Amino acid sequence: MKKGFGFLSAFVVAVLIAILSMNVSSAVSAASxxxxxxxxxxVLKAYKEGWKYRAGGYGQFSGGxxxxxxxxxxxxxxxxxxxxxxxxxxxxxxxxxxxxxLDSASSKGKINYSDSSSLPRIHGLILYQPGHVGVYVGNxxxxxxxxxxxxxxxxxxxxxxxxxxxxWFKLPQITYPTTGFASFxxxxxYYENGQYVVNTTRTISGVTYTFGASGALTASSGxxxxxxxxxxxxxxxxxxQTDSKGADVEKLQQRLKDLGYYYESVNNYYDYCVSDxxxxxxxxxxxxxxxxxxxxxxxxxxxxSAVKNPKPGTVTPxxxxxxxxxxxxxxxxxxxxxxDPTIYYGDLTKQAVLAYQKASGLAQxxxxxxxxxxxxxxxxxxxxxxxxxxxxxEKSLSAEAAVESKSSAESKSGTIVFSNMIPAVNAAAADRSxxxxxxxxxxxxxxxxxxxxxxxxxxxxxxxxxSLRKRTAAVIIKK
Length: 479
Fold this sequence. Notes:
The protein has helices at residues 2-32, 36-49, 70-78, 98-103, 221-231, 247-258, 272-284, 295-301, 322-334, 347-359, 370-376, 397-412, 424-438, 441-478; strands spanning 52-53, 58-62, 65-68, 107-110, 126-129, 132-138, 141-145, 152-156, 167-170, 180-184, 187-192, 195-196, 200-204, 207-211, 217-220. It is built from 14 helices and 15 strands. By secondary structure, it is α+β, with helices and mostly antiparallel strands.
């Protein structure tokens, strides 16, 4: 019996060690993907979302708002797990305080306020003053979470009186650009010798590019050629559709965003959010809504007379967008639906919207424009009745995403949407169901502990039964 118990304990310990080993591997993978541009995007997003200052915080939710201290703002990026969850410190090992971060720096230098060149033009540099750190996001701007009541700020580096940054440094956990193009905040920059260029032109692979004072790309010979071709009636555009990648997709997204059809972060992947935005533009422009950006569609889209979205911010059935994600979160909070929010507006979402519209005395169209969404997100929004108004509450949004996203994918191109084809703003939400299927670090360890306790309980029960049988047999023999 002792041998059996020893084997069982060894098995449980082996399983636990294997699981913890897998988590260590994923942490290393996560750390290798962190970049200076990514850090800049992250802290700028935190500023736009109005994160609060919270001593010891590293991005955890409190009252629906994230909070960090100065170094915690940087840690929140290294430990990021998604838009709807708290960062996880076990992902990456990083120095704790501002001074310790400086001591760990892979490269550092002093900032001379009479010489702007003393601060390298590198997205994601860490800025330091005694007891405080921030993040340089380029173009003489920095983001830092300063103090209680002051909270997160986006301010100039050179040109402000106090507090002044005294040093810059690079964190060893972050990879910084060296040579080549980098995209930040919807614009392109070009790095040479570790810094992005400014006020200059560069000819790269036969194309001449012009970069302005901020370092952002302002024009290229390729764009001039394209404009000339358009004026002559030619169609220099390549057909773009779901699964397309590259600079042309990035340019397409930015144009759709400028016209009010696209609501996500600009990147170089053509996913269903892009396809839906193209369809919306095609409908407004009187073109057959296919979701495919063919030459005819792009000619109209990039024309100076391109029609802007007449109803920007409107959420409609069949739509893939972060707008849908936000709407679903609110409908869940109000009690109209359950499950995990996604970026897809399917039948279950429509049932919830119709139920909300009915309870609010609105026309039951399944469509919510900006005005209606403003009410939905306000304190005036009508909560769901105590009893379920439909079968929505009994169904899972995750199931809707799995079934309806597949159906939508097949109807458009026969290709399933993978998480790496979804814009950065949505990637965490898209990957969440997969993460939850495998479980978090704490969840897996907790499950193993439960399993261990259960098996130990079974063993002790069997042991007691056998012991009782022995005592009973002994009594019978004695009699």
